[in-house]
């Protein structure tokens, strides 16, 4: 089994950078990510006919729970427009090559100021929002976290 890191942002980082995962891709600017809901449910939540089910990355099979996690970690949903485009690091899924949409959809676009292509160092700034950390953010104070032990330098 793959030793997946414990934090949700780190799991998301590995997924969006994996050439084997077709449901999560960087946007064209590398400043946000696109998630194809149906493909994500099949690939990663074990829902549907092509579910691998070998490694359980998330403790849920409900996509709404993933969106809730994104929100708790400060990701914001953006409107997917006709000018949005999907970019991948490896071979793009056939449905994403040459157009701006996935075959299955619905397509979700999320953004976080500390989730950037080529900047894993920013992940420590992504913190799960708790009442205390939300109060700190509202007061203009910085809220940080640390990398999991297996990723310390």
UniProtKB/TrEMBL annotation:
Keywords: DNA-binding, Nucleus
One matching Pfam family: HSF_DNA-bind
InterPro entries noted in UniProt: HSF_DNA-bd, WH-like_DNA-bd_sf, WH_DNA-bd_sf
GO MF annotations in UniProt: DNA-binding transcription factor activity; sequence-specific DNA binding
GO cellular component annotations of the record: nucleus
Ranges where the HSF-type DNA-binding domain occurs: 4-129
Localization annotation: Nucleus
SMART domains: HSF
SUPFAM superfamilies in the cross-refs: Winged helix' DNA-binding domain
Family: Belongs to the HSF family.
Record protein name field: HSF5 protein
